[in-house]
């Protein structure tokens, strides 16, 4: 009997240890996103006979496959903007799994930028926004505003600092191709290319490349079109600045306007909400819509519109 009791005790200890190892493995699987088979989600704000409960931001974040979206150049900026908005005010509304997915996707974004050396400033700003928010939240951890152990969040903050350092250490490599460059093009084409830049900081950076580009980057018409693209006439009239020559200084006005008003956002591809069946998905994703013409029922959502869907 004593021998049997000892074997039973050892067996129980083994089962408990095995379950603990399995649980630890699942919890530490930090590089695996939580996927669902469907790539769409039904957004509902109340209970019905057919559906019960509420759709949350975290649930939508888990279901819409943002890991694949960041590999698409048309969706990359959209996802980054969404990550930034969540970092500013919505982190505490995410579930534990959604918070883990958030950090996994952010890591993939950083790795992509490190590999292709594009959108560096954009990701730096995202990481700084997230780090600032976490500093505030960690100080209030006694109020249970974050899911999980405080040490886990401290480790994530250390990861953010490491990613920031990696981005700061990037050395842009010049391509080996020695053919036609931007400055070899006619001036009208150079200006045409510059007019397609939607961020004034990119214009300033481009002007630092070469003296000829510096002259073009100061073109008044260039900055005027940039102001008119992002801001309304009423906003512009409220922030008029005159140069020493008595002309409107559009460059100074632009940087003053961006401090006062949000800039216009434009994305190659966005999430869409079907007004008929209330299903949220990426453009081109098939979903079980009962409308006669599903294409006419879809509404494009900005990142802020996406966040607003889950504010009850």
Percent of residues in helices: 40-55%
The succession of helices and strands, N to C, reads: HEHHHHHHHHHHHHEEEH
**Shape label:** globular
* Strands, total number: 4
Question: Can you give the mean pLDDT?
Answer: 81
Q: What value does the Rg take, in angstroms?
A: 25 Å
Order of strands across the main sheet: 1-3-2-4
- Bin the strand percentage: under 5%
Biggest sheet descriptor: 4 strands, antiparallel
Q: Uncertain spans, ≥5 residues at pLDDT below 50? A: 29-36
Number of discrete helical segments: 14
Keywords: Cytoplasm, Nucleus, Ubl conjugation pathway
Main location: cytoplasm
Pathway: Protein modification; protein ubiquitination
Subcellular location: Cytoplasm; Nucleus
Describe the structure.
By secondary structure, this protein is mostly helical. Among the domains are: 56-169; 199-260, no CATH class. 54% of the residues lie in helices and 5% in strands. It is built from 14 helices and 4 strands. A 4-stranded antiparallel beta sheet has the order 1-3-2-4. Helix 5 packs parallel to helix 7.
Give the SSE map:
Elements: H1 2-27, E1 40-42, H2 57-63, H3 66-69, H4 76-90, H5 96-116, H6 120-139, H7 150-168, H8 187-194, H9 200-207, H10 211-217, H11 220-230, H12 233-238, H13 250-260, E2 271-274, E3 279-282, E4 298-301, H14 303-308
Antiparallel strand pairs: 1-3, 2-3, 2-4
Helix pairs in contact: 2-5, 4-6, 5-7, 6-7, 9-10, 11-13
């Amino acid at each position: 009997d004593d021998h049997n009791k000892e074997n039973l005790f050892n067996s129980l200890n083994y089962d408990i240890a095995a379950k603990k190892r399995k649980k630890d493995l699942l919890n530490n699987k930090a590089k695996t996103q939580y996927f669902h088979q469907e790539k769409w989600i039904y957004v509902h704000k109340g209970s019905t006979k057919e559906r019960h409960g509420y759709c949350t931001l975290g649930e939508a974040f888990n279901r819409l496959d943002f890991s694949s979206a960041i590999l698409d150049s048309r969706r990359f900026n959209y996802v980054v903007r969404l990550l930034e908005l969540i970092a500013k005010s919505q982190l505490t509304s995410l579930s534990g799994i959604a918070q883990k997915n958030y950090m996994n996707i952010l890591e993939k974004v950083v790795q992509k930028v490190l590999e292709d050396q594009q959108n560096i400033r954009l990701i730096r700003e995202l990481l700084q926004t997230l780090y600032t928010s976490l500093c505030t939240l960690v100080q209030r951890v006694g109020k249970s505003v974050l899911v999980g152990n405080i040490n886990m969040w401290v480790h994530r903050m250390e990861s953010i600092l490491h990613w920031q350092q990696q981005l700061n250490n990037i050395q842009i490599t010049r391509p080996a191709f020695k053919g036609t460059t931007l400055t070899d093009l006619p001036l009208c084409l150079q200006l045409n290319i510059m007019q397609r830049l939607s961020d004034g900081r990119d214009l300033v950076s481009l002007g630092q490349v070469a003296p000829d580009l510096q002259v073009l980057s100061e073109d008044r018409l260039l900055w005027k079109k940039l102001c008119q693209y992002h801001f309304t006439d009423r906003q512009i009239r409220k922030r008029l600045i005159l140069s020493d020559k008595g002309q409107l200084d559009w460059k100074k006005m632009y940087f003053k306007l961006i401090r006062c008003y949000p800039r216009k956002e434009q994305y190659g591809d966005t999430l869409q909400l079907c007004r008929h069946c209330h299903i949220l998905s990426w453009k081109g994703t098939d979903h079980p819509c009962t409308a006669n013409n599903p294409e006419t029922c879809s509404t494009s959502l900005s990142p802020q519109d996406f966040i607003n869907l889950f504010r009850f």
